[in-house]
Specification:
This protein is 57% helix and 9% strand. It has 689 residues and is of the alpha+beta class. Strands 1, 2, 3, 5, 6 and 9 form a six-stranded mixed beta sheet that branches. It starts with 9 loop residues before the first helix and ends with a helix. It binds flavin-adenine dinucleotide (FAD). It comes from Salix purpurea (Purple osier willow).
Length: 689
């Protein structure tokens, strides 16, 4: 509010009048305003202007935090208080494996945390635990994931009451450390191609597990090389028949197989275990290879939720076909994927925090005869890091949403949700982990030579995270599941079926977006228009709709000559782009919702800025696609570019607050170059000064 003076002078009067005229003129200025209104700001040297939003870090942080922060803090405190359990920079494979085991064992036994209980009852809490332990050491996060999500999760989700009663408590307390043995030397992505067999013997009421050839050796099995006592082994269930074949293949099922003796820890008879050796990263996890030779297990060890064998050797299942049973079995395992996407965002938060804090601290060059400037004031550095920071926020809200619908699915078993979570978890896991993997290199490079010192963490983060792109489903394979699902929905739309919630936008978009782009809106270039969530979301969805429609047309055309498989392969890159485009639409939609739902005005303004940067940067990256069909006129494209630059700069001005709001404890970012207050002191000490 302006405070009025007692006796205004003539000069004051003139100022007041001119201000009034200005205000009135604002009312009659047509909105959206053209971008060049802002040119003065855009033209300024970044280091010379300090246009800055006020952000209350604590409030933003509270909004981001979620309800399991206490649990995460308990984990951080546990490790903070035990320096002997922190992973040193230099450590051998064997020491790292032992340390990782002690970290997990100590955490479970001393804090009373029981992750398996949460896997089943409160998945979001379980994922908060894995995020926190992954921040301590990614190997520990994965080791814990193998024990609870893979081994424990397979027993709880594929087994029935008898299995839960017998195993759950002992898995939770780590009395029964175990593995998840699905992948074989010759088959990873193609799980239906695995060759290990479990043949029922009606005389002894047992299954015999066999590895028929070297290609069927279970490979890469986490926890197998050193610590595992059990494994859930995936094998083809064979039933004896009286025909010429002698057996009938009922498809892939999971079986609980004891691996090692309880007291001596020796491999049990018929089980051969080898070490997969030193890896590119994750050396705290003991991956091993398993061969089975006539290993006998009781019939009860079949995890029989989706298919069972009676005492007299009859197969029973509520699901009629091998394919349906296989889909149901794998469908129960999507939790691992959800968790991996979520943990990957945790890694991205750590890396971007280190790189941004360092870039604020580090100064190189500057205007003549003036102090050097922060490297984050270089446009190029902003372009490397600010859209990445915006994307980290976008991923945060997208994975939180995925956790929400996953938890809902576990609670309700709603069939539509099952399908939706399956495709969405595949897409988000693939998209997020690929992005994080690339960003880790960008962060390292953004920190120059110091980024290469192991103590600054990028090396381990990059090496440990890299495999996130492959395990729990190779990203290229997962994206195809998203594309296949989109095409299925597209087909159903034309047959009048219902679309799942996440896909709902396609209903309208197919009709509106596939008509010719609107020649009027394609020329709108005002800031308000470009920052309007409707414009941004429309642009994302328009791209997805076009890709979907053209993919369907191309597939139909090619399948006439190449068959279904050949046509799919001919269009594969197109289909991957389609899947990514759809996932980007979902991510933006969830970000926009998160901005709108934020209760604190200053945090909402900051999030809106970050969300706009995310959206416009993506649109600008794909500007060729939009220009090709005149969805965006040439001047509008320029305006998008300018505004993206401008937003990037504005985000730079609140970058410190934005990374602080991730609320990562210092020992998690643990890179001396990120310790702003002590500058390089800790770093120089570390090398002996
Ligand atoms: C460190 C580590 C830990 C692991 N832990 C476990 C574990 O505990 N338990 C377990 O069971 N497994 C585990 N795995 C195995 C992991 O799940 C598999 O490696 C993964 O599923 C990929 O299978 P693959 O290695 O056979 O790759 P492949 O399927 O052979 O893929 C190789 C390449 O071919 C491409 N490709 C394959 N199929 C297609 C297609 N249809 N279209 C286009 N491209 C295609 C892929 O994109 C990829 O680039 C682990 C692996 C590692 C490295």
């Amino acid at each position: 509010m302006e405070r009025k003076k007692q006796n205004p002078t003539a000069e004051d009067e003139t100022q007041i009048i001119s201000r009034r005229i200005q205000r009135i003129s604002l009312h009659i200025t047509p909105i959206p305003r053209p971008l060049h209104d802002h040119d003065n700001n855009l033209g300024l040297l970044p280091c010379a202007t300090r246009e800055k939003l006020e952000v209350e870090t604590e409030k933003l942080s509270v909004y981001m935090r979620g309800k399991y922060r206490d649990m995460q803090e308990k984990i951080y405190e546990y490790f903070n208080a035990r320096p002997e359990l922190q992973t040193p920079v230099e450590i051998s494979k064997d020491e790292h494996r032992e340390l990782c085991w002690r970290q997990m064992y100590g955490l479970i036994r001393e804090t009373g945390i029981r992750p398996l209980k949460y896997v089943v009852e409160e998945p979001a809490k379980y994922f908060a635990i894995t995020e926190a332990v992954g921040a301590v050491d990614i190997s520990l996060g994965i080791k814990l994931g193998v024990q609870y999500s893979l081994w424990g999760g397979s027993v709880m989700n594929l087994g029935t009451k008898k299995h839960k009663d017998k195993y759950s408590e002992k898995i939770d307390s780590l009395e029964y450390p175990g593995c998840f043995a699905m992948t074989e030397l010759h088959h990873g992505s193609n799980v239906q191609g695995i060759q290990t067999v479990a043949t029922f013997d009606p005389i002894t009421d047992e299954f015999t597990i066999n590895t028929p050839n070297d290609g069927a050796i279970k490979w890469w099995i986490g926890n197998a090389a050193v610590h595992g006592k059990f494994a859930s082994v995936f094998a083809k269930l064979m039933l004896p028949t009286h025909d010429a074949k002698g057996v009938s293949d009922m498809g892939v099922h999971a079986f609980i197989v004891p691996l090692r003796h309880f007291k001596t820890h020796q491999a049990l008879p018929g089980i051969e275990i080898h070490d997969c050796g030193h890896k590119v990263g994750l050396n705290g996890v003991d991956n091993g290879a398993l061969r089975f030779t006539s290993v006998r297990i009781p019939r009860d060890n079949l995890l029989n939720r989706f298919g069972d064998v009676t005492r007299d050797g009859k197969y029973t299942s509520s699901l009629p076909t091998i394919n349906k049973r296989f889909a149901a079995t794998l469908g129960e395992l999507v939790g691992g994927r959800v968790g991996l996407g979520y943990s990957s965002v945790g890694v991205l938060k750590i890396a971007s925090t280190i790189a941004i804090r360092y870039s604020l601290l580090r100064q190189q060059f500057g205007p003549p005869k003036q102090p050097e400037i922060s490297i984050l004031d270089y446009q190029s550095q902003q372009h490397k890091l600010m859209p990445m920071l915006a994307t980290t926020y976008a991923f945060h809200f997208a994975t939180v949403n995925l956790l929400k619908i996953y938890s809902q699915m576990k609670r309700t078993h709603d069939e539509q949700l099952v399908g939706e979570v399956h495709a969405l978890s595949a897409g988000i896991k693939a998209y997020v982990t690929s992005y994080t993997a690339k960003s880790l290199s960008v962060c390292r490079e953004a920190c120059g030579g110091h980024g290469y010192a192991a103590v600054n963490r990028f090396g381990t983060l990059r090496n440990d995270h890299d495999i996130f792109q492959t395990f729990e489903g190779d990203n290229t394979v997962l994206l195809q599941q998203v594309a296949a699902d989109l095409l299925k929905q597209y087909k159903e739309k034309f047959q009048g079926g219902t679309l799942s919630v996440t896909w709902n936008y396609l209903r309208e978009s197919m009709n509106t977006y596939l008509s010719q782009p609107n020649p009027v809106t394609s020329r709108w270039e005002g800031v308000e228009h470009l920052r309007d969530p409707k414009f941004q979301l429309d642009a994302f969805r328009y791209r997805t709709s076009r890709l979907l429609q053209s993919a369907a047309v191309r597939l139909r055309k090619h399948s006439k000559t190449l068959g279904g498989f050949g046509a799919w392969n001919r269009c594969l890159n197109h289909l991957l782009t389609l899947a990514e485009s759809h996932i980007e639409s979902v991510i933006l939609e969830k970000f926009i919702e998160a901005v709108e739902n934020c209760p604190d005005a200053s945090s909402r303004a900051a999030l809106k800025l970050v969300c706009d940067l995310y959206a416009l940067h993506r649109i600008w990256n794909d500007i060729g696609t939009y220009r090709n069909v005149d969805y965006v006129a040439p001047n509008k494209a320029k305006a998008i570019h300018k505004l993206t630059d401008h937003l990037s700069f504005q985000v730079r001005n609140i970058a410190k607050e934005l990374v602080d709001a991730f609320d990562l404890p210092d020992h998690v970012t643990r890179a001396p170059i990120a310790m702003q207050s002590e500058a390089y002191a800790q770093y120089t000490q570390q090398v002996g000064f």
